[in-house]
Amino acid sequence: xxxxxxxxxQTEYEFSLPRGFVDAQGGxxxxxxxxxxxxxxxxxxxxxxxxxxxxxYLPVVLLSRVVLRLGExxxxxxxxxxxxxxxxxAYLEDVYLRLNxxxxxxxxxxxxxxxxxxxxxxxxxxxxxxxSA
Length: 133
Hints:
This protein is of the alpha+beta class. It has one domain (12-105). Helices cover 32% and strands 26% of the residues. It is built from five helices and five strands; from the N terminus they run ββαααβααββ. The chain has helices at residues 39-47, 49-53, 58-66, 78-82, 86-100, and strands at residues 12-22, 28-35, 67-70, 105-110, 117-122. Strand 4 and strand 5 (117-122) form a beta hairpin. The longest helix is centred in the last third of the chain and has 15 residues, at 86-100. The protein is globular and about 60 Å long.
């Protein structure tokens, strides 16, 4: 008989948005945490009526399920994510992919200086939200 082994799996990761969410009072919220997605998160997000009407809304619904905290905001919901700057939304999508992918993630990127396009392989995130490579 095998001994009963207690395995701890990290399911929550910290992040810091490049710009931050600006609330109605002008407060900026940058630091937050995201948990690993479950199969049900992805299933329910795909079946959300807003996604059925416009599939581009999928990241908003999905991220609203897995972002647990953003600064001092009491709740992170789709309306909060709709108010993010595009660069912050892209950052959260990248974090999501890196946390929930079994394989290395390869992104198609463009050089901001010359406009040249190339593929960039990104390493998985560590427990601190930083790249492990």
